[in-house]
Amino acid sequence: MTSPDYSDIQSAADRIAPFARITPLLSSPHLDALVGGKIFVKAEPLQVTGSFKFRGACNSVQMLGDDVKTVVAWSSGNHAQAVAMAAKMRGIKAIIVMPEDAPAIKKKNTKALGAEVVTYDRYNESREEIGTALAEKHGAAIVPPYDFAPVIAGQGTIGKEIAEQAKALNITPDQVICCTGGGGLLAGLCLGLHHHWPDLPIYGAEPEGFDDFSRSLATGERQGNAPDARSICDAIVTNMPGEMTFPINQNHVTSGLVVSDDDALYAMAMAWAHLKLVVEPGGAVALAAALAGKINTANKTTIVVASGGNVDRPVFEQALEHLP
Fold this sequence. Notes:
- The protein is α/β, with parallel strands linked by helices.
- Helix content is 44%, strand content 15%.
């Protein structure tokens, strides 16, 4: 399958318009003061199913033929919920392969949407192998979480929206920061934004221990993470950048930024306190990179993507302990 382009993003925007939400760009004078510039947060926790993943899942499922009655996906939780909802909207069955240690709220919500959940050990089993076997058994279509052109195009609608919203607000961004795991969101965002601002610097943010994208950019080849690496940022702890997404990001992304789990928890607390926005750890790493000084924000206009808000209560309470 060939990589998507901006025309695919435009088609995706039209396709998902009846189902997805246009999420706001939020700002706060307090956050501006913290970074010494202007900062705007794209609030994808307010998206259907609580994350950006619904965009790509909805686009993919809406593109399926009428003969498809079952879809299979694998996900730590956000893509799981998104595919479950998209399948429900199409009136077809969803089977989702999820890690045993995925946040309880993500597993609960996925099941509540009518999906069948199959769990696995993320450290010793392959979700791709399990999912592929299930798809063959049930004659199902597979909707991968990031290395799939319809998914990338769907995520790219965020870039299209940001550009349109910024122009309507007379905002010209100096830089954009986005979290990255497999790279589907980042790739789509790059294609969407660089259509409007070809020279706009875009940065990918990751948690410590899962900085595979940063290392891949530096070496020019996809790099993996240590098997014993752990992070609270469950939504973006993939092993390495995707085969389709990495070449796109390699051509568009300025560099990678790496934050600690504490940085992410602090960003969650700040988003709650000053934007009234609930963000999960993996969804907060872009804001964390700005707040932690991983990039120069002084006298600049920075747009960050808050990618999801599906967080268990104990983790959110842990984040709130980081309030000053």
